[in-house]
Design goal:
The protein is about 15% helix and about 30% strand. The protein is α/β, with parallel strands linked by helices and about 190 residues long. Strands 1-2-3 form a 3-stranded parallel β-sheet, with helices on one face. Strands 4-5-8 form a 3-stranded antiparallel β-sheet, with no helix packed on it. α2 (about 60-65) runs parallel beside α3. The two termini are about 20 Å apart. The mean pLDDT is about 90.
């Protein structure tokens, strides 16, 4: 088993299936085996007829609890199409509080097999376009474009994630010559 996503589709305090007890149990049960756990959240229940799901704080609270649980790696939401309806402000919470920075999905497969993926021949054109080549491009799912201030790689952040071998730097980079740009290929298993 590479990972599990238990569908913990109940609210905190539910007498039959309490969210708090269940997410803690799943994390503690699988952590000793090195199996990754992501919690499945029921965003389809938000704003339905039952009282707990009329509370706009229920889902943000669940996400926060998952993030604070060292045995759980993240959240999965069912279903994506639910983001097209009124979720009591959850969309804004996701954008402004939980998912502010772009990030890569966790590596899902427990494998030691590696690919020697590396970006070669990076060119920066006058219009601030980066263009590169990758020898084994057929094994690349996408490229992560990182940046950090020169001399400070610990403050690296993802600028963007692209599926092409080119990237147009934002206008703000025209004057930011003291930043390092790193391009990392990522394979279909999420290995960088």
């Amino acid at each position: 088993i590479d990972y599990v996503v238990p569908q913990i589709y109940w609210e905190a305090g539910n007498k039959a299936a309490d969210f708090d007890e269940l997410h803690n149990w799943w994390g503690k049960t699988f952590a000793p085996y090195g199996i990754k756990v992501f919690v499945g959240h029921a965003i389809y229940k938000i704003n339905d007829a039952t009282t707990p799901w009329k509370n706009p704080a229920e889902m943000p609270s669940q996400i926060e609890k998952v993030r604070n649980n060292e045995n759980i790696l993240g959240s999965v939401f069912f279903s994506y199409r639910q983001l097209n309806r009124d979720l009591l402000g959850l969309e804004e919470q996701l954008k402004s509080n939980f998912y502010v920075q772009k990030t890569l999905a966790p590596q899902l497969i427990n494998t030691t097999k590696t690919y020697d993926l590396k970006v070669e021949k990076i060119r920066r054109r006058r219009d601030n376009m980066l263009v590169w080549e990758c020898e084994k491009a057929d094994t690349v799912r996408f490229y992560a474009i990182y940046e950090y201030p020169k001399g400070n790689p610990h403050s690296e952040r993802i600028l963007d994630i692209v599926s092409t071998t080119y990237y147009h730097l934002p206008k703000s980079h025209h004057k930011r010559s003291k930043h390092i740009i790193r391009i990392a290929p990522v394979d279909r298993f999420g290995r960088e």
